[in-house]
Amino acid sequence: MLEKTQGIVFNYLNYRESSVISRIYTEDFGLQSFLMNGVRKSSRSAGPRTALFQPLTIVNLVIYYRPGADLHRISEVRCLQPYTSIPYDFRKSGIALFLAEVLSKSVREETPNPDLFRFLLESLYQFDVMPDHYGNFHLQFLLGLSRFLGFMPSSAGDLYSQLFDTAGWRQIIDPAEETALNALLQSRSYETHIPVSNTIRRSLLEHVMKFYDLHVANFGEIRSLTVLQETMR
Questions:
Q1: Can you give the pLDDT at residue 48?
Q2: Which UniProt keywords apply (predicted)?
Q3: Burial class of residue 163, CB neighbours in 10 A (0-12, 13-18, 19+)
Q4: How far apart are CA 194 and CA 197, in angstroms?
Q5: Strand partners, 73
Q6: DSSP SS3 for 85
Q7: Whole-number Å distance between alpha carbons of 194 and 182
Q8: End-to-end Cα distance, the chain
Q9: What is the DSSP letter of 173?
Q10: Are strands 58-64 and 2-15 parallel, antiparallel or unpaired?
């Protein structure tokens, strides 16, 4: 059945000579795998269309959707609204690559979740237009995402007590990190500037990643984490 929907690309892999298979989180069908033929062929008027399948690209899709199938076919794909800064800012690109990998390992719903889709869409567009003070964006995004995944901590103490001994985590965690995490959890806007040192930010990310690993089955290693850490120095 031919359907129209919007989607957020998580990743893609090359298939045969000119096709790709892409994992896309869609507004109407949740996370699905799609095949598109001829994407890697250059036309006379344009080059290969693989740019449409770069991680976190937001697309309009016309698809042949078969309920229960493992793979669906894309008839048409267009970029919904091109980013103005993410592809051209190496720091933002590093953050986007990291978040796309986390999403691909944690979001697995094959049914629609309009609230989650709206959260992702609005977060990405807001990230794209942020001129500065986005050093905490990935942390706020991950904490916000955990709410939709069902394990958002109620406080810094809640998170740390799950990672460490309930009574002993205060002997391990820097009080400045606890304060920063509570501020991030309480923040309702990415635009809220929360001063966090690079050292505390790296430690926060390490603990948030361990928290995800604790709650997401087969979460595994995030390979792009090293790239993110390099770009955020």
A1: 57
A2: DNA damage, DNA recombination, DNA repair
A3: middle
A4: 10
A5: 35, 64
A6: coil
A7: 11
A8: 48
A9: S
A10: antiparallel
Pairing of strands 30-36, 72-79: parallel
Given the structure tokens 């989607």, which residue do they identify? Answer: 7
Residues in the chain: 233
Beta strands in the chain (DSSP E): 2-15, 19-26, 30-36, 58-64, 72-79
In the chain the domains, ranked by start, together with CATH numbers, are 2-79 (2.40.50.140), 90-231 (1.20.1440)
Asked whether the beta carbons of 205 and 138 are under 8 A apart, the reply is: yes
Mean pLDDT by 10 residues, the chain (233 residues): 96 91 98 90 59 96 96 96 95 96 97 98 98 95 98 97 85 95 96 94 97 97 92 78
In this prediction, residue 46 carries a pLDDT of: 45
Beta strands in 101-174 (DSSP E): none
* Alpha-carbon gap, residue 200 to 230, rounded angstroms: 15
Query: Contact, 94 vs 231, CB < 8 A?
Result: yes
> What pairs with residue 11 in β-bridges?
23
Tokens of 96: 């986007």
Is the distance from CB of 92 to CB of 126 less than 8 angstroms? no
Pairing type for strands 30-36 and 19-26 reads antiparallel
Q: CB under 8 Å to 140, separation ≥6 — which residues?
A: 184, 187, 190
